[in-house]
């Protein structure tokens, strides 16, 4: 899927995005999720969470009074 592919292709040693979180953290969270799933354990799925956030923004936009995209 697009979110997983974008994360995979992102460089680790780049400046953080607008949210202040560097790509290495997102990749680490996804790696922990995949490892837990491989061992049939419950885990937090960052890819599905990011997908939900992106889809919500796509459908509803960003609240006018926030500085989310600045």
List the helices and strands and how they pair.
Elements lengths: L1 H8 L13 H16 L7 H15 L10
- Helical percentage: 55-70%
Tally of DSSP helical segments = 3
Tell me the count of domains. Answer: 1
> Structural class, from secondary structure content?
mainly alpha
How many β-strand runs?
Answer: 0
The 3D shape can be described as: globular
Low-confidence stretches: none
3D architecture notes:
The chain is mainly alpha-helical and 70 residues long. It has one domain (1-9, 19-60). 56% of the residues lie in helices and 0% in strands. It is globular, with a radius of gyration of 14 Å. The two termini are 27 Å apart. 4% of the residues are buried. The model has no long low-confidence stretch (mean pLDDT 88).
Output the keywords.
single chain; 70 residues; mainly alpha
Task: Summarize it.
With 70 residues, this protein is mostly helical. 56% of the residues lie in helices and 0% in strands.
């Amino acid at each position: 899927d697009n979110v997983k592919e974008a994360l995979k292709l992102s460089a680790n040693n780049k400046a953080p995005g607008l949210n202040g979180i560097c790509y290495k953290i997102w990749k680490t969270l996804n790696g922990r999720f995949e490892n837990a799933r491989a061992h049939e354990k419950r885990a937090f799925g960052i890819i599905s969470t990011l997908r939900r956030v992106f889809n919500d923004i796509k459908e509803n936009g960003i609240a006018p009074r926030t500085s989310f995209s600045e």
